[in-house]
Design goal:
Number of helices: 15
Largest sheet: 7 strands, mixed
Oligomer: single chain
Radius of gyration: 24 Å
Shape: globular
Structural class: alpha/beta
Strand order of the largest sheet: 15-17-18-13-12-19-20
Distance between the termini: 60 Å
Strand content: 15-25%
């Protein structure tokens, strides 16, 4: 049995050590054991009941403004411990400092944003939804819709790629809404999530039971839910299907939000010349999206659509940028891209890459990157690979998401074909559009909005201002239709809707006005 430290779970207002041997988390560069996680033996139903009753009652007793101030205190706790979080991210996620910042500082920024948004909701405990509606000719009896906090808990089952941001982008609107949170982080990188929760719990800035963490297997978590709980899941479409078929979801209507697979696109509009500003912006953004967090982002660019006359020029421009990317141990300051998070993730990327290579040519070979301070036999480091095919109709390019530093360049004949090819992804989190003519960019954005949760339009006038194709800002919607899961998160105060119940109060006008 491993002697590596076993991380504790926090549930029912107490710290618990799992009774099993646990799963070992590794440094994906050095291959060394870090910590173990295990949730065996936890009384989930009892712990969930404590969260609903003790944590939930305490949160609902507060106003939105008071909960917003509470989030601001959480921000202070996290800011005070940032250095430790960066150390954990380097060791457990294998990320360079800039990539760790996307996760750590991105999560803290999202919390801070919701703390500020919550101030605007004031000293009230529910929200008015629209205007009162007259139910008859006499205005004395009307209907008023209101939003009240869910009288349950929010269970988050998260992916491995964002152990900080994935927690706080969900927890911020939930806690602001007055709903207690139970987080089950992705196992390979659960250390950072657990450590952040421990810091917040130990600081005493949240009511007891408002925030819990269960590390290890997700077995039994869904069975412990009740009809008034909500569940938010980020991960594979296959697991999402299992969740949707669970009896509590299918028969008892537990509310579910899903973020699943997404084959996101970048589209260069017609009329651009090689070397033009819009052309260069596309090449720069594609290379950045392929390499940030080693391509392990749900929002990363997977397909690049360009006019067929620019295929070769784009291949050369993107490849030239990728060639400058240094890969290896993130502790070396010369390294710009670290590792994949685990050996299993490395094998999955290699398998997906082989599948795409069977139908495409290699435009830039990731194997050409010599690893810096990393042993290829031990580490999970891979270089960025750009593939390409002049036959964009092959469905494999629109079905296969390789969750790593891999993207495929595809040509189109005209804009109508480009739109059709983008939609072959069957719903994505984000598409980015590049051009310089405002009317054409606006028309393209509206055209693709039906199949994307977010459309990111990059023109030369915002070259230094745009927030990035793959960066999820709390003010904008995150999620996507169809294959992307059909869910919605963030979007400013829109996120609170998932954690509230809408009800129509039918009453005398004098009663409604008192609300």
């Amino acid at each position: 049995m491993s002697t590596t430290q076993l991380l504790q779970n926090y549930l029912g207002g107490q710290w618990h050590t799992g009774t099993g041997q646990g799963t070992v988390l590794f440094d994906p560069v050095l291959g060394t054991e870090l910590v173990r996680v295990d949730a065996t033996g936890l009384d989930l139903k009892k712990g969930f009941a404590f969260a609903r009753e003790t944590g939930g009652n305490a949160l609902r007793a507060m106003t939105y403004a008071q909960r917003a101030a509470m989030l601001a205190q959480v921000v202070k706790v996290l800011q005070a411990n940032r250095d430790r979080y960066y150390e954990i991210a380097t060791a457990n996620s294998g990320t360079v400092k800039n990539d760790s910042a996307v996760d750590i500082d991105g999560g803290i920024f999202t919390l801070s944003t919701y703390a500020k948004l919550g101030e605007s909701l004031g000293e009230r405990k529910f929200l008015i939804d629209g205007e009162a509606a007259r139910l008859g000719k006499d205005p004395l009896f009307q209907s008023q819709h209101i939003l009240v906090p869910n009288r349950g808990l929010a269970l988050f089952i998260n992916a491995f790629n964002f152990p900080s941001w994935g927690l706080w982008e969900k927890a911020a609107p939930a806690l602001l809404s007055g709903v207690p949170v139970v987080i089950k982080p992705g196992t390979p990188t659960a250390w950072l999530t657990q450590h952040m929760v421990a810091d917040v719990v130990n600081a005493g800035v949240l009511p007891v039971g408002a925030l819990s963490v269960v590390c290890g297997s997700s077995a039994g978590l869904l069975d412990a839910l009740t009809p008034f709980d909500v569940l938010s899941f980020t991960g594979s479409a296959d697991t999402a299907g299992v969740i949707r078929s669970h009896p509590l979801v299918a028969q008892r209507s537990v509310r579910v939000n899903i973020e699943a697979d997404s084959v996101n696109s970048a589209l260069l509009l017609p009329g651009q010349a090689a070397g033009s500003e819009s052309f260069d912006l596309l090449a720069k953004e594609v290379a950045r999206e392929m390499t940030v967090k080693s391509g392990q982002k749900c929002t990363a660019i997977r397909r690049i659509f360009v006019p067929e006359a620019l295929f070769d020029d784009c291949a050369q421009a993107i490849s030239a940028r990728l060639a400058k990317t240094t890969v290896g141990n993130p502790r070396n300051e010369s390294v710009r891209m670290g590792a994949l998070v685990s050996r299993s993730q490395l094998h999955a990327v290699q398998q997906g890459l082989a599948q795409l290579k069977a139908h495409a040519q290699v435009l830039h070979d990731g194997a050409s990157h010599a690893l810096i301070d990393a042993d290829a036999a031990i580490s999970c480091c891979v270089g960025p690979t750009l593939l390409g095919s002049r036959d964009a109709n092959q469905q494999v390019f629109h079905d296969t998401e390789v969750f790593g530093p891999v993207a495929t360049l595809l040509p189109y004949k005209d804009l109508n074909q480009a739109y059709e090819l983008v939609r072959r992804g069957e719903g994505s989190l984000v598409a980015s559009i590049y051009g310089n003519e405002p009317a054409a960019l606006g028309a393209a954005a509206v055209e693709l909005a039906d199949s994307h949760g977010r459309v990111h339009v990059i023109s030369p006038d915002v070259a230094a201002l745009h927030t990035g194709h793959g960066n999820v800002m709390p003010q904008s919607l995150h999620g996507g239709p169809g294959r992307a899961g059909g869910g919605e998160e963030l979007g400013g105060l829109r996120a609170l809707g998932f954690y509230h119940r809408r009800s129509a109060i039918q009453a005398a006008t004098t009663i409604l006005s008192g609300l």
